[in-house]
User: Fold this.
Amino acid sequence: MNSHYFEKEKETMNRKDLESLQLERLQATVKRVYEKNSVYRKNFEQAGVTPQDIKSLSDIQKLPTINKTIFRDTYPMGLMCVDKKEIVEMHMSSGSTGTPVVMPYTQGDLDQWASCMARCYAMAGALPTDVVQITPSFGLFNGGFGMYHGARKYGLFVVPTGAGNTARQIKLAKDFGTRVFTGVVSYGLRLIEELEAEKTSLSDLRIGIFGAESFSAAMKEKISQGLGIEVFDIYGMTETGGVGTLGQDCPAHNGIHVWEDHYIIEILDRDTHTPVADGEIGELTITALTREALPVIRFRTGDLSRIISRDTCSCGRTHLRVDQIMGRVDDMLIVKGVNFFPSQVEQALMSIPGVLNNYQIIIEEVNGVTDLRVHVEAENGVTGFMVEKVLKETLGFSPKGDIFAPGALPRQEGKAKRVFYRKSDGSLA
Ligand code: DLL
Assistant:
C-alpha cells in the first residue's frame, strides 16, 4: 500500500530498535521527573521505586500510575518539570469530570507536537501543497492550535476558520479549494447537514481528519459517505500534549497507529491496573518519552481500547495499532442491570436506514426504576418501534425510542454531549 510519511525512518523503524529507543528515553524521562519535580519524586518514593530500578521496558510496571486527579491536586503547574521561563504556550481542558488539566509547552514540546501532527497529515495522504481547513476552536482547547502547528510544520496552506458559522466554512472551502478538512466528529455531521440544506458539495475535498469525541465505525462511514471523502480517526489529549500526539489510523483503516517513539502505551485492567493481554479491552495508559515541560508517566487516560496488532502494517509503519476508542471508564452506563457504553447505542442507531446523525441518550426514572430513552432524528418512515427493536438486539432490553424531524434536536459547538439525565422537573441535564 502506498503511504506518505513525514518521518519515514522513525515511522518504519524496526521493533528492536524502537524498543531500545523507548528504553533509553524512558530511563532519561523517569530520571528527569524524579530530579525536577517533588510531586513525582514523592509518588515514586511511596511506591518504593527509584530511576535506577528501570532496567528494562517491563520495569515500567514498577512505577505508580496517575490519573486526572494529580492534575487537579497540583493545579495550575505543580507537575511541571522545567523552569517557568521555558514555557511558551499552554492549553487546558476541563476534562469529562470537570477537573482542570493544564498542559504547559516548551518550544521543544511544540516541535514534538507539530511533528506528531505532521505525521498524521502525511499518513492521511495530505500533500504539503494542500489547503487544510482547521475547524476545531483556537483557544484553550488544544484541537485548533495542534492542527495548526502540525500543518505549518508539514507546509500546508492553512485556512484557520476555527469553530462555527458553517455556511461561511462552506464558502471558504469553495473559494480556497480546501482539500483537507479537520474537525471534532460532530462537526463533520454538521457540515453534511449544511451542505444538504444548501444543496451543494465541496468538489475539492478529499480527506477528513476527525476526533475528540466518540467515533463509532458507523459514524465514520456516515461522514465518509456524506462528504464523499476518506475519513481518518485522530487521537490525542491535553495530558499527552494534544491532538495527534498519540496517533491516527492509516489508509489501511485497521486501528490507530500510536507514535511509539514518543509514547509508551499500556492497556491496563480497569480495576486492578495491571496489564491485560493484547486484544483484551482495558484502560489506555500513556507514558510520554519526549515531552519536556510535563511528561506524563503511566497516565491512566480513562479511555478504553485494545491492542489490535504490534506487527508491521500494510502501510509500512511498525508502530502498534489500537482499536478506535470504545468509551471511557467513567461513561459506562448501567440500566436494567446491563452495562453498556454510549458508543454501542450510536453504532446500533446508525445501522438503521433513514436514521440521521443527531441523537440523545436519556437516562430517566420511570416508576422508581432507571430506564433508557433514545431521541433520534430520522427521515420519514423510520418509527420508534424500529429503533426500539434494534436497540433491544444490541442491549438485551427495550429502551423507548422517539423520532424527531431532521434538525429538531439541539446542536452544540465543540464536543457534542450525547448522554443526558432527566431531572425531577422533566428537564435534561
Ligand atoms: O480532544 C484532542 C483532540 C482534538 C483529538 C481534536 C482529536 C481532534 P481533550 O479535550 O483533552 O483533547 O480530550 C481528550 O477526548 O481522552 C478521549 O476521551 C476523547 N478523544 C480524543 N480523540 C478521540 C477519538 C482532545 N479519536 C479526550 N476517538 C480523550 C474517541 C477521542 N475519543
The mean pLDDT is 95. The pocket of DLL is lined by residues 93, 136, 142-143, 184, 211-215, 233-238, 242-243, 301, 303, 325, 328 (CB under 6 Å). Residues 332-421 form a domain with the GMP Synthetase; Chain A, domain 3 fold (CATH 3.30.300.30).
